[in-house]
Structure formats: C-alpha cells, structure tokens
Amino acid sequence: MTEFQLYFGLGKDHILDYANGYDHILFIVALCALYITRDWKQILVLVTAFTIGHSITLALSTLRIVNVKPDLIEFLIPLTIFVTAVSNLFKNENNISSGPMQMNYFYAAFFGLIHGLGFSNYLRSILGKSENIFTPLLAFNLGLEFGQIIIVVLFMSVCFILVDLFNLNRRDWKMVISSAVAGMALLLMKDHMFWLKD
C-alpha cells in the first residue's frame, strides 16, 4: 500500500466512522435535509462549498499556520450542526433557489472552515512530527471527500425512496430530519461545554 492510499483510506474512514465521527455526518445530513434528489445541482454546490471551507483550514492547521484550541473546536462543530439544522425549520423547502435558501451555501463554506480544524486535529495526531505532509494532506482530504460523497448518496437515496416513491410530505421529511439532528447536536454541545470552565 502506498502512502497516498494509506492516507486516502484514513480520510475516508474518519468521516465514515459513525461511532467517533458522526458529528461530521450529522452536519452533512443537516445541509442536505432541505433537498430532494431533483435538487442535485444545489446539493453539488453545497458539497463543493463545504469542501472548499474545510480544505482551507485542514491545510492551514495541519501546516501549523493556524492553531485553535481543540476543546473549543469540539464545541463549535456541534454548534454549527445545531445552527444549520434549526435554520432548516424556518426555510421554505419549495423555494430552493431564493434568498434565505442561499444561506445554506454560506453555512456550508463558513462552517466547513470549523470542521476542517476538527479534521486537522486527527490528521496531525497521525502525522506526528513528519516533515513530508503534502502527500498525506492531499490524500487525506480526497479521502474525506470520497466519504462525504458516500454519505450524500446514501442520505439522498433514502430521501428518494421515502419522498419520491412513497410520497412522504417533503416538509415533514425536512422537519423530522432537522429536528432530530438539532437534538443530537444539543447533546454533543452539552458533552463539550466543559472547556468553558477552563
């Protein structure tokens, strides 16, 4: 196995790790909750915005140009999930291309910056003091993207079955998914609030 394959696999496994990395999965689900399969172009823009955001801080933090307290990041990540999920509850899912909906692209890009810091903590722990980080950084990031695509495809497949095939009300789908994600994000925030006492 090459170094590229190793770090690609680590990136993919990190984002697909539903036991330890489900916060990132929840964020992707929250981003996609407003959309159905025919909105695939908007989903593509959304995923690209998240990719750009977390790629920037993943690189900057791994290169030690940006350094943020890990405990703070562990609190901010569920906060981004909560804000995204709650904002879904107040949006009209039938007006995908109108004003308030465009905030989703901002959430994806800006909150992606925060998630990139979380990814970098994991990558730096693996790299240790290694000086050659370009290949691991690139491979890890591509692995993250591959895993992210898998999550989107799986989530949108369930959406297609329930909304398109079984005619589940689109608004009900959005409300149930977003409410559930917001609730889980609150629990994560509670678990990571101890940093505020330091």
UniProtKB/TrEMBL annotation:
Keyword tRNA processing: no
Positions in coiled-coil regions: none
Matches recorded under InterPro entries: Put_HupE_UreJ
Organism lineage: Bacteria, Pseudomonadati, Bacteroidota, Cytophagia, Cytophagales
Entry's transmembrane regions: 20-36, 43-66, 72-91, 103-123, 143-163
Protein name according to UniProt: HupE / UreJ protein
Alphabetically ordered keywords of this record: Membrane, Transmembrane, Transmembrane helix
Keyword Transmembrane attributed: yes
